[in-house]
Amino acid sequence: MPVDPFHLAFHVRDIAEARAFYGGLLGCSEGRSAETWVDFNFFGHQVVCHLNPTLGPEGKIASHANPVDGHGVPVPHFGVVLTMDRWNSLADRLREQDIEFVIEPYIRFAGQPGEQATMFFLDPSGNALEFKAFKDIETQLFAT
């Protein structure tokens, strides 16, 4: 299934902090940048962290939660669908780094057509990220 890369720009409170999180922790390579923004290769997609000085050094992005499968899913959020092996490796790396999960890694919709591995956590600015995986992305990604 060929996928066109998406582009997502969002605000962060500190560019150096964003570089450490997206580049260091998540392993995303850096692209173009300036004093107030930085591009990352987010698993084949382009994300751009833009400095929002109104957040301040301790500021966080406001979010809301909607119930999904018994959990409060943060909205808005973004992320990527990985293979199950890559998802497990990332979950292990995040646990080793003591990342505080909004929703711990688990299997959602177990035994149903949309069964998926999922986890949610926040970047330092409070942007919510979801990483998910399916046993068979081709048949399960949009299963109803």
Automatic annotation (TrEMBL):
InterPro entries, A to Z: Glyas_Bleomycin-R_OHBP_Dase, Glyas_Fos-R_dOase_dom, VOC_core
Q: Which Pfam families match?
A: Glyoxalase
Its source organism is: Gimesia algae
Q: What is this protein called?
A: Glyoxalase-like domain protein
PROSITE patterns (alphabetical):
VOC
Annotated VOC domain residues: 4-134
